[in-house]
Please model this.
Amino acid sequence: MPQLHLHLLSDSTGETLEMIAKAALAQFEGVEVVRHFWPMVRSQQHLDRIMGEITRNRGLVVFTLVNPEIRIQLESRCAEAQLPTVSALDAVTESLSRMLGQEQLHRPGRQHQMDEAYFARVEAIQFTIAHDDGLLWEEWEEADIVLAGVSRTSKTPTSIYLANRGYKVANIPVVPESPPPPALYRLKRPMVVGLTTSPDRLVQVRRNRLLSLNQAPETDYVDKERVDDEVRYARRMFADNNWPVIDVTRRSIEETAAAVINLHNERRIGQAGTKPV
Amino acid sequence: MPQLHLHLLSDSTGETLEMIAKAALAQFEGVEVVRHFWPMVRSQQHLDRIMGEITRNRGLVVFTLVNPEIRIQLESRCAEAQLPTVSALDAVTESLSRMLGQEQLHRPGRQHQMDEAYFARVEAIQFTIAHDDGLLWEEWEEADIVLAGVSRTSKTPTSIYLANRGYKVANIPVVPESPPPPALYRLKRPMVVGLTTSPDRLVQVRRNRLLSLNQAPETDYVDKERVDDEVRYARRMFADNNWPVIDVTRRSIEETAAAVINLHNERRIGQAGTKPV
Model:
């Protein structure tokens, strides 16, 4: 398999760059890519150290450096070494610059400013962790989103993912033997979303879960008939309350979360997709 | 303040695109940007609906569409309406295509495949939630990273953020009155990192925390001398055990996490930054 060294340089956390690389690489297959991840490159000395590694592992250099001195240094040194470079954000930044009639600021890390939106996001994460798995249901009215679903429908990771995007999320397991607190049916502010999945898939996932916990794999928890009943009970609850339902059977966490955000946008403003910064 | 409508179209979750927009917008100021976020655009009908909204809110159209039919449709219809479009990932995808001697696949959502890495990440999130705040310390040896720090040094959100990037993280509050389980000092596999912050900042953050909980703002928890002692105690513990220390005083969660990842890379392979996909 051909191998490619991919050097990713950022003068901030490198998170955006990592996602760009992941999305772009997903469009190729049968290639072994060795990623070299270089965040927080903000000094000449740091760049010097990295250039040694880059020339030892020749490949493609992709960067999101906004500091012009470091950028020019990198570009000219790579040109000397005959290594291709790509500035990952130029197309978007340049269009914005034209549209706004403004030069870009060239200040690294500005997207990580600890502004109001930042603190709201941290609060969302804290809220979400404190309201996992039916905890503190007395405070559900403060949530943006409440996810309901039977065990192993990805409620927790989906909640956490949404929290990282700024939503305060609570989640509640749907268990026929133990009905949820009646407060669930009276929520005003939060959007309640039901998560469902195919019983076959659920039995599979739960069986793996029990194996990983070293527990006996033959209990009601993985009994096909019982699981059918459970899923039917949950679906009826969702329908009775007119909650939107997302089937997570073939969806990754990110895709489930994107579907939840779509529903939330539509509900919040009665016009899909508009969200002020 | 000038206003700009920014339309973000993706045929997948739109997460990468949202981060690109955030990073690029951070380089401009004094502008009011209204973001219109359109994820999962995979059909002609969906695009038809969106085009109505775009032409009603004229502005810049940025996209990460990989499906060529939808992309061509969008581009030609925006051209007709004299609206500028930018393809956010082209520079990187085209360079990769050249380097690899391969055409891109044009299949949306491939970065969200539920592969091994995906399930490892979900497991990391579940592990991290189960090991918040000193819980289940018997299992710490399974963690990649253990964060230690006094109350309100962002241990929990930093842990969650790292979990989203695939690291299994546990965290433990450092409290002089209640020493941590001795297991903490004997960990082999996990990297233990101490989080510290300036006592002044800590008093401030904690005071706000108490206010938000409607609790009396004058307790030991926010007493300057007590907080000084607490921070000193934590720093001594970190030094005695030779744990690397990160000062979070002026760092956002993302920046603290990037610093932790840097330390983890360096420790793991004795050579900063190299990480195979």
Notes: The longest strand of chain A covers residues 3-9. The domain at 116-269 of chain A is CATH 3.40.50 (Rossmann fold). Chain A touches chain B through 93 residues (CB under 8 Å).
